[in-house]
Amino acid sequence: MKLYSWNVNGIRAVLRKDAFVPFIKAEQPDILCIQETKAQPGEAVIDLPDYQEYWYSAAKKGYSGTAIFSKTKPLAVTNGFPADIITRYHLTGDVYGDPNAEGRLITAEYPDFYLITVYTPNSKGDLSRLSLRETSWDPAFLAYCQQLERTKPVIFCGDLNVAHTELDLANPGSNHRSHGFTDEERRGFQNFIDAGFVDTFRKFKQGNGHYTWWSVFSNARARNVGWRIDYFVVSAALADKVTAADIHPSVMGSDHCPVSITLDL
Known about the structure:
By secondary structure, the protein is α+β, with helices and mostly antiparallel strands. The protein has one domain (2-263): Endonuclease/exonuclease/phosphatase (Deoxyribonuclease I, Chain A, 4-Layer Sandwich). The protein has 7 helices and 14 strands. It has a 6-stranded mixed beta sheet. The chain has a 6-stranded mixed beta sheet with strand order 5-6-7-8-12-9. The protein has a two-stranded antiparallel ribbon with strand order 10-11. α4 (130-149) runs parallel beside α5.
């Protein structure tokens, strides 16, 4: 089973570039999770008859949003966090509004696992959303994954808006305290690892130079001056079932590239 994740940075833009359907036809993912769709229902019509489609749009037009395309119909699909998690972690909003209205989280249940596509809030260049990340979103997301794990293993993927270690971005020295590489955000990701979740890419490949996002300035992508902020993370119970984990920098159309895992169940 091949699972892919891609922050498309606007599904309509990727469609206009004729980059989306050719990618799916070439890679043939069994499940594709996308983030930052920036589309309302009906605004992006995609002819993929082999796939079930599940969309979760932000209330604000042209912003955020997630989707899942699946060849197999899930047992169930839910949008967002459950009410008890929202209440427990005071995930009710900040100066930017309610993150629960931003279409950031879809959970699909399959016979052997839960699959979550997630678009983690960006903490902003001035770190004005870092408090939301540190005190609410990151702990809420971990608690939610652990809650699901009590029933069956969890796979989550998407743009987590954090480079975990200094190996996950080209210029760590000049980016300490930059959004996406603060101690708080890195600690939020480490908490998943400490809880037993596995960063699948690091199961197969070490070292730097493996990035999933590049600035649109200074020819950064061609020079491979980037960040690894898109992930597939799995419960420990599934780690041995992951037989490959890859980054696909040759796939164009977005400032992010797809990431994938192969799962042998």
